[in-house]
Amino acid sequence: MAWWVAVLLGIVQGVFMFFPVSSTSHLALVQHLLISNGVDLPSPDSAEMILFDLMVHVGTLVSIAVVFWESLSKYLKYTLHGFITLVSANRKLDNISRLYINLTMMGLLSVLVTGLIGFPMKALFESVFAQPLIISLTLTITGILLWWTDILSDRKIGLRQIGVGVAIIIGIAQGLALLPGLSRSGTTIAFALFAGVQRRWAAEYSFFIAFPTILGASLLQAIEVYQYGGLISISTTSIIIGLVVAALVGIIALKLVLALLYRAKFRFFSYYVWALAVVVVIASFRGIL
Question: What is the pLDDT of residues 121-138, one digit of tens each?
Answer without folding.
Answer: 877 777 777 788 888 898
